[in-house]
From TrEMBL:
<dbReference type="InterPro" id="IPR029475">
    <property type="entry name" value="DUF6807"/>
</dbReference>
<protein>
    <recommendedName>
        <fullName>Methane oxygenase PmoA</fullName>
    </recommendedName>
</protein>
<dbReference type="Pfam" id="PF14100">
    <property type="entry name" value="DUF6807"/>
</dbReference>
Length: 378
Protein backbone atom coordinates (compact mmCIF):
# COMPACT_ATOMS: atom_id res chain seq x y z
CA UNK A 1 0.00 0.00 0.00
CA UNK A 2 1.25 3.49 -0.87
CA UNK A 3 2.16 5.72 2.05
CA UNK A 4 1.06 8.80 0.14
CA UNK A 5 -2.12 10.56 -0.88
CA UNK A 6 -2.69 13.44 -3.26
CA UNK A 7 -4.83 16.49 -2.54
CA UNK A 8 -6.23 18.89 -5.09
CA UNK A 9 -6.81 22.48 -4.01
CA UNK A 10 -9.04 24.69 -6.15
CA UNK A 11 -8.72 28.44 -5.63
CA UNK A 12 -12.30 29.14 -6.67
CA UNK A 13 -13.34 32.69 -7.54
CA UNK A 14 -10.60 34.50 -5.64
CA UNK A 15 -6.85 35.00 -5.84
CA UNK A 16 -5.17 33.45 -2.77
CA UNK A 17 -2.20 34.86 -0.88
CA UNK A 18 -0.79 33.44 2.36
CA UNK A 19 -4.12 31.69 2.74
CA UNK A 20 -4.58 29.32 5.71
CA UNK A 21 -6.09 25.98 4.67
CA UNK A 22 -7.23 22.97 6.65
CA UNK A 23 -8.50 19.57 5.60
CA UNK A 24 -9.89 16.70 7.64
CA UNK A 25 -9.00 13.10 6.74
CA UNK A 26 -10.82 10.18 8.30
CA UNK A 27 -8.41 7.76 9.89
CA UNK A 28 -10.03 4.90 7.99
CA UNK A 29 -8.92 6.53 4.73
CA UNK A 30 -5.26 6.89 5.71
CA UNK A 31 -2.66 4.58 4.19
CA UNK A 32 -1.07 3.60 7.51
CA UNK A 33 -2.53 1.77 10.48
CA UNK A 34 -0.13 3.64 12.79
CA UNK A 35 0.79 7.25 12.23
CA UNK A 36 3.44 9.54 13.71
CA UNK A 37 2.14 13.04 13.09
CA UNK A 38 5.59 14.60 13.30
CA UNK A 39 6.67 12.55 10.28
CA UNK A 40 3.94 13.77 7.91
CA UNK A 41 5.33 15.80 5.03
CA UNK A 42 3.78 17.68 2.12
CA UNK A 43 5.12 18.64 -1.32
CA UNK A 44 3.76 20.71 -4.17
CA UNK A 45 3.80 19.52 -7.78
CA UNK A 46 7.37 20.78 -8.27
CA UNK A 47 8.60 18.74 -5.30
CA UNK A 48 9.04 21.77 -3.04
CA UNK A 49 8.47 20.99 0.62
CA UNK A 50 5.37 22.70 2.07
CA UNK A 51 5.07 23.32 5.79
CA UNK A 52 2.25 21.17 7.17
CA UNK A 53 0.92 20.82 10.69
CA UNK A 54 -1.25 17.95 11.89
CA UNK A 55 -3.73 17.45 14.70
CA UNK A 56 -5.41 14.21 15.72
CA UNK A 57 -9.03 13.84 16.77
CA UNK A 58 -10.80 10.65 17.74
CA UNK A 59 -11.73 9.69 14.18
CA UNK A 60 -9.61 11.90 11.94
CA UNK A 61 -6.40 13.73 11.19
CA UNK A 62 -6.59 17.46 10.40
CA UNK A 63 -3.93 18.89 8.08
CA UNK A 64 -3.07 22.61 8.16
CA UNK A 65 -0.94 24.51 5.67
CA UNK A 66 -0.62 27.88 3.94
CA UNK A 67 -1.14 28.59 0.27
CA UNK A 68 1.55 31.13 -0.53
CA UNK A 69 -0.07 32.16 -3.81
CA UNK A 70 -2.74 30.71 -6.13
CA UNK A 71 -4.65 32.60 -8.80
CA UNK A 72 -8.44 32.47 -9.08
CA UNK A 73 -9.78 29.34 -10.84
CA UNK A 74 -6.38 27.65 -10.72
CA UNK A 75 -5.62 24.38 -8.95
CA UNK A 76 -2.66 23.01 -7.05
CA UNK A 77 -1.78 19.36 -6.43
CA UNK A 78 -0.10 18.41 -3.16
CA UNK A 79 1.41 15.09 -2.18
CA UNK A 80 1.09 14.14 1.48
CA UNK A 81 3.63 11.56 2.64
CA UNK A 82 2.79 9.57 5.78
CA UNK A 83 5.96 7.43 5.76
CA UNK A 84 7.51 6.77 9.13
CA UNK A 85 11.12 7.60 9.88
CA UNK A 86 11.59 10.11 7.05
CA UNK A 87 14.02 12.97 7.57
CA UNK A 88 12.07 16.16 8.19
CA UNK A 89 12.66 19.00 5.74
CA UNK A 90 14.23 22.11 7.24
CA UNK A 91 11.37 24.60 7.26
CA UNK A 92 10.86 27.79 9.18
CA UNK A 93 8.91 27.26 12.38
CA UNK A 94 6.66 29.26 14.63
CA UNK A 95 7.85 28.99 18.22
CA UNK A 96 6.44 29.89 21.63
CA UNK A 97 9.02 31.11 24.11
CA UNK A 98 7.76 31.16 27.68
CA UNK A 99 8.74 33.93 30.06
CA UNK A 100 7.26 35.00 33.38
CA UNK A 101 3.57 35.85 32.79
CA UNK A 102 4.18 36.03 29.06
CA UNK A 103 4.39 33.91 25.90
CA UNK A 104 6.53 35.32 23.08
CA UNK A 105 5.61 34.07 19.60
CA UNK A 106 8.59 33.89 17.24
CA UNK A 107 8.42 33.41 13.47
CA UNK A 108 11.72 32.45 11.85
CA UNK A 109 13.41 33.28 15.17
CA UNK A 110 12.09 36.87 15.15
CA UNK A 111 9.49 38.18 17.60
CA UNK A 112 6.04 38.42 15.98
CA UNK A 113 3.95 39.22 19.06
CA UNK A 114 3.50 38.37 22.74
CA UNK A 115 0.58 37.19 24.85
CA UNK A 116 0.96 38.96 28.20
CA UNK A 117 -0.83 37.61 31.27
CA UNK A 118 0.60 39.84 34.00
CA UNK A 119 -1.65 39.53 37.10
CA UNK A 120 -0.69 43.09 38.05
CA UNK A 121 -2.63 44.33 35.01
CA UNK A 122 -6.41 44.44 34.74
CA UNK A 123 -6.54 42.08 31.78
CA UNK A 124 -4.35 40.04 29.42
CA UNK A 125 -3.37 41.53 26.07
CA UNK A 126 -1.71 40.53 22.80
CA UNK A 127 1.04 42.81 21.62
CA UNK A 128 2.95 44.48 20.28
CA UNK A 129 2.44 43.04 16.78
CA UNK A 130 5.72 43.45 14.94
CA UNK A 131 5.69 44.42 11.26
CA UNK A 132 8.34 45.20 8.65
CA UNK A 133 11.62 46.70 9.92
CA UNK A 134 10.65 45.96 13.51
CA UNK A 135 7.85 48.54 13.58
CA UNK A 136 4.74 47.74 15.64
CA UNK A 137 1.32 47.79 14.00
CA UNK A 138 -0.28 48.40 17.39
CA UNK A 139 0.11 50.86 20.26
CA UNK A 140 1.39 49.60 23.57
CA UNK A 141 2.04 52.56 25.85
CA UNK A 142 1.95 52.30 29.63
CA UNK A 143 2.80 55.98 30.16
CA UNK A 144 0.08 57.76 28.17
CA UNK A 145 -2.82 59.38 30.01
CA UNK A 146 -5.03 59.05 26.93
CA UNK A 147 -6.86 55.69 27.07
CA UNK A 148 -4.05 53.88 28.93
CA UNK A 149 -6.21 50.73 29.03
CA UNK A 150 -5.93 50.44 25.22
CA UNK A 151 -3.11 47.89 25.16
CA UNK A 152 -2.60 46.63 21.60
CA UNK A 153 -5.23 43.83 21.35
CA UNK A 154 -7.49 42.90 24.25
CA UNK A 155 -11.00 41.83 25.28
CA UNK A 156 -13.22 44.03 27.42
CA UNK A 157 -16.79 45.16 28.05
CA UNK A 158 -17.79 48.37 29.81
CA UNK A 159 -20.78 46.89 31.64
CA UNK A 160 -20.80 43.30 32.95
CA UNK A 161 -23.51 43.15 35.62
CA UNK A 162 -22.77 46.81 36.24
CA UNK A 163 -18.98 46.35 36.47
CA UNK A 164 -16.75 48.27 34.05
CA UNK A 165 -14.42 45.64 32.55
CA UNK A 166 -13.20 47.94 29.75
CA UNK A 167 -11.81 51.05 31.43
CA UNK A 168 -9.51 50.98 34.44
CA UNK A 169 -11.23 53.53 36.63
CA UNK A 170 -11.89 52.93 40.36
CA UNK A 171 -13.52 49.54 41.06
CA UNK A 172 -12.81 48.30 37.54
CA UNK A 173 -13.38 44.72 36.46
CA UNK A 174 -10.51 42.30 36.13
CA UNK A 175 -9.62 39.24 34.08
CA UNK A 176 -7.39 36.47 35.38
CA UNK A 177 -6.02 33.44 33.60
CA UNK A 178 -7.27 30.32 35.35
CA UNK A 179 -5.86 27.72 33.00
CA UNK A 180 -3.60 27.44 29.96
CA UNK A 181 -5.58 24.87 28.03
CA UNK A 182 -3.29 24.67 25.00
CA UNK A 183 0.13 25.99 24.02
CA UNK A 184 1.18 24.52 20.73
CA UNK A 185 3.46 25.62 17.88
CA UNK A 186 4.74 24.17 14.62
CA UNK A 187 5.69 25.11 11.07
CA UNK A 188 2.26 26.55 10.16
CA UNK A 189 0.99 28.31 13.28
CA UNK A 190 1.20 28.79 17.02
CA UNK A 191 -1.96 28.38 19.07
CA UNK A 192 -2.63 29.46 22.64
CA UNK A 193 -5.93 28.68 24.38
CA UNK A 194 -6.73 30.01 27.84
CA UNK A 195 -9.59 29.95 30.33
CA UNK A 196 -10.12 33.45 31.69
CA UNK A 197 -12.27 34.45 34.67
CA UNK A 198 -13.89 37.91 34.69
CA UNK A 199 -14.35 39.35 38.18
CA UNK A 200 -15.24 42.58 39.90
CA UNK A 201 -12.46 44.58 41.57
CA UNK A 202 -12.72 42.52 44.77
CA UNK A 203 -12.51 39.20 42.92
CA UNK A 204 -16.16 38.12 42.77
CA UNK A 205 -16.74 36.01 39.65
CA UNK A 206 -18.89 37.54 36.89
CA UNK A 207 -18.41 35.23 33.88
CA UNK A 208 -15.61 33.42 32.12
CA UNK A 209 -14.27 33.18 28.60
CA UNK A 210 -12.44 30.54 26.63
CA UNK A 211 -10.20 32.28 24.08
CA UNK A 212 -8.02 30.80 21.35
CA UNK A 213 -5.34 32.82 19.57
CA UNK A 214 -3.76 31.44 16.38
CA UNK A 215 -0.73 33.18 14.84
CA UNK A 216 0.21 32.00 11.35
CA UNK A 217 3.64 31.62 9.78
CA UNK A 218 3.38 34.53 7.34
CA UNK A 219 5.77 37.43 6.60
CA UNK A 220 5.87 40.53 8.78
CA UNK A 221 4.21 42.42 5.92
CA UNK A 222 1.21 40.05 6.01
CA UNK A 223 0.66 38.88 9.58
CA UNK A 224 -2.51 36.83 10.17
CA UNK A 225 -3.98 36.25 13.63
CA UNK A 226 -7.25 34.39 14.26
CA UNK A 227 -9.02 35.12 17.52
CA UNK A 228 -12.00 33.09 18.74
CA UNK A 229 -13.61 33.44 22.16
CA UNK A 230 -16.71 32.31 24.00
CA UNK A 231 -18.21 34.31 26.86
CA UNK A 232 -20.01 31.99 29.29
CA UNK A 233 -22.43 32.71 32.13
CA UNK A 234 -21.07 29.96 34.37
CA UNK A 235 -21.65 31.71 37.68
CA UNK A 236 -25.18 32.99 37.14
CA UNK A 237 -27.13 35.48 35.08
CA UNK A 238 -24.95 37.96 33.12
CA UNK A 239 -26.18 41.27 31.75
CA UNK A 240 -23.89 42.83 29.16
CA UNK A 241 -24.92 46.46 29.02
CA UNK A 242 -25.57 48.62 25.97
CA UNK A 243 -22.24 50.37 26.34
CA UNK A 244 -20.07 51.83 23.62
CA UNK A 245 -17.08 51.06 25.87
CA UNK A 246 -16.93 47.56 24.50
CA UNK A 247 -15.96 45.27 21.71
CA UNK A 248 -15.63 42.77 23.25
CA UNK A 249 -12.59 42.88 20.92
CA UNK A 250 -10.48 46.02 21.13
CA UNK A 251 -7.48 46.97 18.96
CA UNK A 252 -5.40 50.13 19.29
CA UNK A 253 -3.42 51.00 16.17
CA UNK A 254 0.07 52.51 16.23
CA UNK A 255 -0.21 56.20 17.10
CA UNK A 256 1.07 57.50 13.75
CA UNK A 257 -1.35 55.18 11.89
CA UNK A 258 -4.41 56.93 13.34
CA UNK A 259 -6.63 59.18 11.24
CA UNK A 260 -5.70 62.03 13.58
CA UNK A 261 -2.12 61.63 12.32
CA UNK A 262 -2.99 61.23 8.62
CA UNK A 263 -4.24 57.64 8.48
CA UNK A 264 -7.45 56.30 6.96
CA UNK A 265 -10.34 54.02 7.95
CA UNK A 266 -12.16 52.10 5.20
CA UNK A 267 -15.01 49.63 5.68
CA UNK A 268 -16.24 46.84 3.39
CA UNK A 269 -18.67 49.21 1.66
CA UNK A 270 -16.10 51.91 0.94
CA UNK A 271 -17.11 54.26 3.74
CA UNK A 272 -14.26 56.44 4.99
CA UNK A 273 -13.10 57.38 8.49
CA UNK A 274 -15.02 57.66 11.73
CA UNK A 275 -17.56 60.07 10.25
CA UNK A 276 -18.84 57.35 7.88
CA UNK A 277 -17.82 54.10 9.67
CA UNK A 278 -18.64 54.68 13.35
CA UNK A 279 -21.96 53.10 14.33
CA UNK A 280 -22.34 51.39 10.94
CA UNK A 281 -22.48 47.62 10.40
CA UNK A 282 -20.00 45.99 8.02
CA UNK A 283 -18.22 42.62 7.66
CA UNK A 284 -14.82 44.28 8.01
CA UNK A 285 -12.97 47.51 8.60
CA UNK A 286 -9.42 48.40 7.59
CA UNK A 287 -7.27 51.01 9.30
CA UNK A 288 -4.02 52.13 7.68
CA UNK A 289 -1.45 54.90 7.89
CA UNK A 290 2.23 55.68 8.20
CA UNK A 291 4.39 53.80 10.70
CA UNK A 292 8.12 54.51 10.60
CA UNK A 293 7.78 55.99 7.12
CA UNK A 294 5.95 52.95 5.70
CA UNK A 295 2.23 52.49 5.07
CA UNK A 296 0.94 49.73 7.36
CA UNK A 297 -2.61 48.65 8.12
CA UNK A 298 -4.80 46.49 10.32
CA UNK A 299 -7.90 44.88 8.79
CA UNK A 300 -10.37 43.26 11.18
CA UNK A 301 -12.64 40.58 9.70
CA UNK A 302 -15.76 39.17 11.33
CA UNK A 303 -16.84 35.60 10.63
CA UNK A 304 -20.44 35.38 9.33
CA UNK A 305 -21.06 32.66 11.94
CA UNK A 306 -20.63 35.25 14.70
CA UNK A 307 -23.84 36.28 16.46
CA UNK A 308 -25.75 39.15 14.81
CA UNK A 309 -23.38 39.44 11.84
CA UNK A 310 -22.40 41.88 10.44
CA UNK A 311 -21.24 43.76 13.48
CA UNK A 312 -21.50 47.45 14.18
CA UNK A 313 -18.20 49.31 14.65
CA UNK A 314 -17.01 51.51 17.48
CA UNK A 315 -14.07 52.83 15.47
CA UNK A 316 -12.35 56.11 16.14
CA UNK A 317 -10.12 58.56 14.28
CA UNK A 318 -7.78 58.60 17.29
CA UNK A 319 -6.90 54.92 16.69
CA UNK A 320 -9.43 52.51 18.24
CA UNK A 321 -10.96 49.51 16.42
CA UNK A 322 -13.78 47.73 18.27
CA UNK A 323 -16.51 45.65 16.62
CA UNK A 324 -19.42 46.28 18.98
CA UNK A 325 -22.98 45.01 18.76
CA UNK A 326 -23.71 45.61 22.44
CA UNK A 327 -24.10 49.40 22.19
CA UNK A 328 -25.85 49.50 18.84
CA UNK A 329 -28.17 46.52 19.34
CA UNK A 330 -29.07 47.17 22.96
CA UNK A 331 -27.01 44.89 25.20
CA UNK A 332 -27.20 41.14 25.75
CA UNK A 333 -28.62 38.92 28.49
CA UNK A 334 -27.02 35.54 29.22
CA UNK A 335 -28.90 33.27 31.57
CA UNK A 336 -26.85 30.86 33.65
CA UNK A 337 -25.29 28.28 31.35
CA UNK A 338 -25.70 30.36 28.16
CA UNK A 339 -22.82 31.68 26.07
CA UNK A 340 -21.82 33.94 23.17
CA UNK A 341 -19.13 32.99 20.64
CA UNK A 342 -17.12 35.36 18.42
CA UNK A 343 -14.70 34.64 15.58
CA UNK A 344 -12.37 37.25 14.07
CA UNK A 345 -9.36 37.33 11.79
CA UNK A 346 -6.94 40.25 12.05
CA UNK A 347 -4.85 40.91 8.94
CA UNK A 348 -1.78 43.11 9.49
CA UNK A 349 -0.62 44.36 6.13
CA UNK A 350 1.73 46.57 4.17
CA UNK A 351 0.16 49.22 1.92
CA UNK A 352 -3.32 50.70 1.83
CA UNK A 353 -6.60 48.78 1.57
CA UNK A 354 -6.42 48.35 -2.20
CA UNK A 355 -2.70 47.60 -2.35
CA UNK A 356 -3.05 44.94 0.35
CA UNK A 357 -6.07 43.39 -1.42
CA UNK A 358 -7.98 43.39 1.86
CA UNK A 359 -11.26 42.36 0.22
CA UNK A 360 -9.55 39.26 -1.22
CA UNK A 361 -8.03 38.37 2.14
CA UNK A 362 -11.53 38.50 3.65
CA UNK A 363 -12.63 35.93 1.06
CA UNK A 364 -9.72 33.71 2.15
CA UNK A 365 -11.31 33.82 5.61
CA UNK A 366 -14.98 33.20 4.79
CA UNK A 367 -14.69 31.23 1.50
CA UNK A 368 -11.45 29.21 1.69
CA UNK A 369 -10.25 27.11 -1.26
CA UNK A 370 -11.84 23.74 -1.89
CA UNK A 371 -9.73 20.71 -0.97
CA UNK A 372 -10.37 17.14 -2.09
CA UNK A 373 -8.54 13.83 -2.20
CA UNK A 374 -7.50 12.64 -5.66
CA UNK A 375 -8.69 9.08 -5.90
CA UNK A 376 -6.48 6.47 -7.58
CA UNK A 377 -8.93 6.09 -10.45
CA UNK A 378 -8.99 9.82 -11.32
Amino acid sequence: MSNQIELKVTAGNHDRKYCPVSFQLLKTSLPLSELILANVRMYDKSGKAIAVQCEETKDSIVLYWLIEELAAQETMIYTVDFSEGNQKDQLKNVEIFERENQFDILIDSELATSYVMDPELAKPYLGPVIGPNGQSYTRLDFETTEHPHHRSIWLGIGDVNGVDAWNERPDYGKQKINHIQEKYAGPVFARISTEVEWTNFKGRSLMHDHRTITIYNTPASARIIDLSFTLSADYGRVELGATKEAGPLGIRVAETMSVDHGGTIVNAYGSINEEECWGKSAPWCDYYGKVGGETLGIATFEDPQTTEFPTYWHIRNYGLIAPNNLYFRGGQLLRKGESLTYHYRIYFHEGNTQEALVANRYQDFIHPPKVEVIENNE
